[in-house]
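Model it.
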Amino acid sequence: MSTPNKTEIRAFRKLELKQHGTAYKILNGALKNPYVLIAPAVIIALGTTIYALIYCIYLSFMKWDPIFGTKEFVGLYNYKYIFTDELFLTALKNTVIFMLVTVFIGLVLKVLVGVFLNKNKPFHNLVQTIMFSPYIIASVAVATIFKYMMQPSGGVFNQVLGLLGIEPSLWYMGEDSALMSLAFITIWQGMGYGVLIVISGLRAIPDYVYEAARLDKSSKSKTFFHITMPLLSPTLFYLLVTSSVGAFTTFDIVSMMTDGGPGTATYMLAYYVYMQGIRFMHYGRAMAASVVLLLITSSLSALNFAMAGKKVHYQ
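Modeled.
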C-alpha cells in the first residue's frame, strides 16, 4: 500500500474540515496557537497567586480570629504594630545583615571557584558533581547535620579548631556567632548551584574573544577584569537577584537550628511571619508582615534591575 503524499493529506484535511463545520474549524485553528495550549496552566497559576496575594492584603487590614471565625476591620493598626515592634525591627536588621553576607561573600566565592573549575577534565567534573550535591539535599537534612557538627562540645568544627590551636566557638549557640553560622551554612549549601551557573556563563563566552586578548598580549588579570567579568555580568546579575530574594525569605534553617535564638540573634522576617501567624495566631499581623516582606523583596529586585542592570553586558 502506497504512502499518501503531502497533497493528498492536505486535501483530506480540507474535506474533513468541511464535514465538521465552522465550530470544528475554529477549534482546530485555536489548538494550533501555542498561547491557547498554555492558557489553562497560566490561568491556574495566576488565579491561585493573585487570589492569595489579594486575600493576604485584605487580611492585613483585619483582626481575624480563626477560632470563632470573626473578622474586624482595623485599618492600618497591624502595620503600625509591626513597625513599632522591636522584634520585627530586629528581624529586619538580622535579615539585611544575613542577606549582605550570604549574597556578596557567596557571589565572590562562586566566581572564584567557578573560574578554577572551568576545565573539562575528569577531576574538575567530579568536583563539580560533588559540590552540587548539597544543593539537592533538603534544607532540613542540612540543618540537622550542621547542628551536630557545630556542637560546642564534641562537634567536628570545634575538634578541628582544637587541632589548629584555635579557641572553640559556640557557633549557632552563641549570640555573637549564631547569625554568621547560619550564613556560612547557607553559602555552603548554595555554592554548588552557583558554581555551575558561573561555569555555564564562562563556557558561553566565545573563544575568539580570548584569542584576540592573547594577540594583544593582555595579562591574565586584565583579561579577567576587562573581558571575563563584563561578559559574565548577565550570569552574576541572575545570581545576585535570586540569592538576594532567597536570603530575605530564609526560614527553614532558622526554624530547624535556632528558633530565632539565642535571644533574637537569628530572628528573620520569614520566621517573624511564621511566629505571628502560627504560634501566636495573630493572622492580621502575620499578613501585614508578609506584605512588607513582599514589598521589600520586590523593591530589592527592582533596585537590582535598575542599578546592576545598567552594567550588564549582553553579547
